[in-house]
Structures are given as C-alpha cells and as structure tokens.
Amino acid sequence: MKLLKLTLDNFRVFYGTQKLDLEVSQDKPAVLIFGMNGAGKTTLLNAFTWALYGTFSDDVERQERVINDHAWAETPFGGAVSASVKLEFEHEGLHFTVHRAVTTTKNADEQSAVTPKLTVTESEHGASTTVRNGQDRIQKILPEGLRQFFFFNGERMERMFTGDRTDEVQQAIKTLMGLEEIERAIDTHLPAASRKLSRQVGSNGDGRLQALTAEQDRLEQQKIEVHKELLRLSENAAGYEREVEAANKALLANGKAAPLQRQRAKLKFRLDELVAKRIERQERKRDLLAKNSFLAFTGGIDSTVLDLAEGMRKRRELPAGIQRDYIDGLLEDGLCMCGRDLPEGSEARTALEERRYNAGLADVEGRWMYLRGKTADLTLARADLLAKLRECVSDIEDIEASIKQIDAERSDIARELEGVDEMDVQRLEERRKEFDRKRLDALQQHREAQTQLTELDEQIEKVRRQFHSARVQDEESKRIQRQVLLVDEVLDAFQRILAVKTEEVRQQLDAKVKSVFGRICIRPFTPSLTASFALELVNHSAGVAAARSTGENQILGLSFVGAVSELTKETYDRKQKATDAVLGGGGVYPVVMDAPFGNLDVAYQNDIAESLPKLTSQIVTLLSKSQSRGMVLEHLGQAASRMYVLRSYTTNTDADEDSITIHDREFPYVSHGEFNHTVLEEVTA
C-alpha cells in the first residue's frame, strides 16, 4: 500500500480544499508536516482513518462536527453543506481512490451526526470501475484492526501493549500475517462441518449420539450468546471511558476545578504506569512458574542422588563403559580372546579379574563428575528461581501498596471536587464518577464472560470426546461417527499448526523488536515479546524487569511498529517469490504518525529521528515546532521527499503571529485571519 494523495474539503479545522501530495522516492521515504498544537495534526491523522474506515480515534472531541465550523456558519438555513476526504493510493499494481463524504441540510446552529457515503474506485491501465462493497475491499487491503500499527499518535502508542490490549495486538498480528484464515477454519468452518455431520444421525440412529449432538448444539448456542455479550460489554466499556474522558476535560477547563483535576490527571498517569508494571511482574512470575516450577519439587532429591551416587562410585558400581562389559563376557565364557581356557584359580583368570576391577575407573570418575555438576546446577537453578520469585512477589506487593496510596489520594481529590462551591463542577464530578463506576462494572462483567467462554469451550471439548468414544451398533451411526472424528482430527491439526505458526511469528517479531530497539535505546535494556504478545523490558545487567519510563515506553512502541513493518514486508516478498501454502499475509504498508517524540529528551529524539525513515518504505510524520529543531530536523529533512506546514489562521489579534524556520528559511506558522481555520502549505525549495 503506497499513499499518493490526500484531499480534504471543509473537513473539520480545514476550510475549503486542501491537498497533500504523498508520493515519495525510495531514498527519501518521508513526508514531514509541521503544525502547532491545535492546528489540526490530530485531525489530519484522523483524515486518513476516517476516509478508510469512517471512524475517529477516541481522543477526537465532538466527532459529529465533521464539517468545518466556518463552512457550516456561512451556510444559510435550508442550504446544503458538505465535507469530504479523498485518499488515493496504490496497492499491488492497482490505483484506488477512496472518497468518503457527508452531505446534509442545515436546519440548526449545531451540527448533528450524519452517516457518511463511501465511494471506492479501482483503476488499472487507465480503466476505472466503482468497487461494490467498497468497505469490504478496504478491509481486505488493510483490516481496521491493523490501523493501530500504521496510523497512530506516538504519545499514546504504548497503551496498545498493556492490560487487555495484548489480546487485540495478538489478533491483529495474526490478521497481518495471514493466520486468521487458519483461525477462521478452526473457529467457524470445521466446527460447522462437524455439527452438520453430527446432525445426520436420524431419529432411527443411535440415541447416545443424538443426545450428545443435542448437548453440543446447546453449548454452541450458549457460546454464541456469550460472544455477543462480550462485544456488547466491550462497546459499553469503551463508551463509558469516552464519557469519563469528556468529564475530565470539562473539569480541566473549569477554573475552580482545574488545579485538582491536573493533580488527578498526574495521579492517573502514575496509576496507569503502576498497573502496567504490575501486569509485567505478574506475567514474569507466571512465565517463571510455567518454565521452571518443576524445580520446586526437586528439593532434597539432588542430595539423595549425590549420596547414592557417591556410594556407587566407591563400590565402582556406576556404569563404566564397554571395556568392563567385554571382560565380564570373557570370564562368563571361561575363554580368553586368544582362545586359551580360563579355569577357576588359573593365573590367566586371576590377571583378567584384576584387569576387570580396574577397568573403567576413569570412566566412573568422569560420570561421577558429570552427575555431581548437573546436580549442583539443579540446586543453583532452584535457588535462582526462588530468588526471582521472591523479587517478583516483593515488587508486586510494593506496586500494590503504591496503587493503594494513589487510590486514596484520588479519593481525596474526588471529595474535594464534590465540595467545590460550583454546581457545574459538582455535576461534572458526579457524572465522571457515575460513568467510571459503569466502566469498571462493564470490565468486571467482561472478565466473567471470558471465564464463562473458557468453561463452555471445555464442556464442548468433553462432549466431542464422548461422541468419538461412544459405542454404537448400527452401521450408519458408525459411519457418521468416523466422519466426525476425521473432521475433528483435522481441526486438532489446524489448531497445532496455528499454535506453531503463531509462535514462529512471535519469535521473528521478538528478534526484530530487539534489533530495532537496540538501534535506538542507549540504556542496558532488552525488549521481550511474551507468549501472550505483551511487551516487556528487561534490564539485562540485572536480569530483572526494567522500570520503564514514559520515553522508554514510546521507544518500545516505535520499535514494535518498526518490527511489524519489517516482518510484513519480508513475508510479502517471500510470498511473491514462492507460494506458501500455510503462511500468507504480509504486505508493504505506510506509517502515518503524530507526535513521534512525545516526552523524549533530546538525545532520544535525535536517535529516533535518524531511525524513523528506516522503519518502512513510506512514513508521514506530523511534528510540532518544538519537536523539529537541530539534529531532529536535519535527520528527517535529509529523508524527506516533501514537507508541509499547517498554517493556522486565528481571529485573536492579541495572539502573536509566528513563523517556523526550515532549512534556513522562514515559513508562516500562525497568522491573523477573518475566521479560525487551517490551510496546508507546501515547503518549496
């Protein structure tokens, strides 16, 4: 997927028609866009995803206001007014134009939500056709679940790797690598085939099979209902979260509530960090137990083995190799290897018996040293496991104590806000508390539904096994039973294939994350992608999980995005050369990102600025003036095919006009105007 052009028409803060040429060269893969806070960088980022999927990110306020405010204001009542975004791109040799627009009649001062219209056009060799089911076509090119890897805000990207989001990341990676086809066969097609065969047991068939089929149908129906409930709870939780954020922003905008709200925001940020760290420590503890818990049951066994082995060594009873076995054979046969008889008491037999006694002593000693060394390793490994588990438990206890303290401070702030002598503040705080309570309830119900889903899967598997092993008499029922068993064996094989391929992708991605992270981060940390696709950061000098800063979280996120881009491109290139019957997927995708540097210090900004153009074959970066100075601008400027400035026009004449310096030239950045809006202006040589 190669972006070509973005055209905005009265889209939110952008008035009139604004065009963004996105074509880049191979040696200069970057497009740089500079804009002040509030100029429309987040809007521009969302223009891409709104064109493709018709949705905005959660941080976009007043999402119903798609049409530019000035365009809306100058439209008379009863007049038609519209806004649109057109995105042109190439994909696998085809040229696509995606046009999404809203058109409405103005009947009120405020805008209301309007359903947008999507038109997708596909062109090849100069011939264009309108694509039926355009949204489905877009989904096949870049599924919406993958947008988080290619269109994102750098300051918020670390959230995708914490808490419940790891499941989303894992599923998105499967989709990206083509594994969802195997998963679809496992979740839908093969179970459907198995059920269809099972239902062929007619009324005259085996009663046991009929009962088991009915029971599985009942459980499958329950599973469908639980899936629906999970989706509903997820949507509810997300909606409640948006309401909480809206109340938080309103409190922050209130003069009396703002100081307390800022304090609460800081506590919330710290709380999120602590929760993420607790999840990391808990994951590390589970990983330690999963891989090494057997060591806990070896206490005492090692010393017993050593005592037994020492006795055997002294008695020369440890295996001593082929030499002693050979002499035993000669003595038993009573015949020397030269053919001479070996009668009891003879000089020859006595000499051979002495030789047998000393035979293999070096071998005995060698085996003894090996056994003692391995047993000592076992003792050390058990001690190391205990020390690491104690450290994890101690860290978790410390984190939970800190969380408890922060919760107490947040409760104090809530009480103070409730006591503020202003009705708006009290109402906002009550609203915030109400939706936060609903959000937590929805998340708890979601966890309970997940547990119920797991239990249903276990019950369905139990019924499947009973169906396979049931004793049946009539031949028709036996035939159906064999066919169901065959389909279920294929299902089991697909599940093993999916597990192997998922682990293979995880290992490849883990190696690439380490590689990209190592090129950016100067601290002695190593990232690790766990079996559950959660990102951890390990302090390899201490061998423990690192306490991640906000900046390191951002570097970790960027490293992951870079690794995903590299892996998908390699998979795509491999697929073009030779068809892989099992692993499909892959692709070449652009990256569009806002605020790539977030809260990073200058050293990290320079390192990332140097690394960003290497992440993918096309990268569109949105920067503020403060993020584009010195070496940052030099690194990015050298890799840029095109540069633009988001020029902000303001009606506030008290505000100073401003400019931005790019390659020793001044370009307008903030200007006075008749109404508030933003225009795109290309930086020319």
UniProtKB/TrEMBL annotation:
<dbReference type="GO" id="GO:0016887">
    <property type="term" value="F:ATP hydrolysis activity"/>
</dbReference>
<protein>
    <recommendedName>
        <fullName>Nuclease SbcCD subunit C</fullName>
    </recommendedName>
</protein>
<dbReference type="GO" id="GO:0006302">
    <property type="term" value="P:double-strand break repair"/>
</dbReference>
<feature type="domain" description="Rad50/SbcC-type AAA">
    <location>
        <begin position="5"/>
        <end position="221"/>
    </location>
</feature>
<keyword id="KW-0175">Coiled coil</keyword>
<feature type="coiled-coil region">
    <location>
        <begin position="209"/>
        <end position="250"/>
    </location>
</feature>
<comment type="similarity">
    <text>Belongs to the SMC family. SbcC subfamily.</text>
</comment>
<dbReference type="InterPro" id="IPR027417">
    <property type="entry name" value="P-loop_NTPase"/>
</dbReference>
<feature type="coiled-coil region">
    <location>
        <begin position="396"/>
        <end position="473"/>
    </location>
</feature>
<dbReference type="Pfam" id="PF13476">
    <property type="entry name" value="AAA_23"/>
</dbReference>
<dbReference type="InterPro" id="IPR038729">
    <property type="entry name" value="Rad50/SbcC_AAA"/>
</dbReference>
<comment type="subunit">
    <text>Heterodimer of SbcC and SbcD.</text>
</comment>
